[in-house]
TrEMBL record:
It holds the Pfam family DUF2507. This is DUF2507 domain-containing protein. It comes from Halobacillus aidingensis.
Length: 147
């Protein structure tokens, strides 16, 4: 079993050398994990995202956007910022394909958990993230609410 070395943090530099396919990841994420985890899958995927973020060195929103690209999670941009809320748009070819496929009900809980933890690390405030899918325009709105 391969384990992340204690001293190795995930960065856009070292993940860019990884090879992966979106299809394999999606099958595991939407088919195998929910079958294995049962009704708790959305909650556990959220916390898996938070855990992954704790092993990642990201200190700016630009690094977060770049990380999303490398992971194949889509193009992330901040579209609105208020005192207690940040609204992001997640779009791109991969998001369009995920939203329009007919095999699985897609969710973005892992991305939300990852973002909640990274934004907390960047800002020193607790955030929770929630997604809203826009199938008509092929994007996902992710709201980060300050706790």
């Amino acid at each position: 079993m391969s384990v992340l070395k204690e001293s190795t943090k995930l960065t856009t530099g070292n993940i860019s050398s990884l090879v992966g396919t979106g299809a394999g990841f999606d099958l595991m994420r939407y088919y195998t994990l929910p079958d294995f985890l049962g009704k708790d899958a959305p909650y556990l995927l959220y916390y898996m995202g938070k855990n992954m973020a704790r092993q990642t060195e990201i200190s700016t929103l630009d690094e977060l956007y770049e990380f999303f690209q490398y992971m194949g999670w889509g193009e992330l941009v901040l579209v609105k910022e208020k005192r207690k809320e940040m609204i992001f748009k997640l779009s791109g070819h991969m998001i369009e394909k995920r939203l329009n496929q007919k095999m699985f009900e897609v969710e973005f809980r892992m991305e939300c958990g990852f973002m909640a933890e990274i934004i907390c690390q960047i800002s020193d405030y607790t955030y929770e993230c929630f997604e809203e899918k826009n199938h008509k325009e092929n994007y996902v709105e992710i709201k980060a609410l300050k706790g």
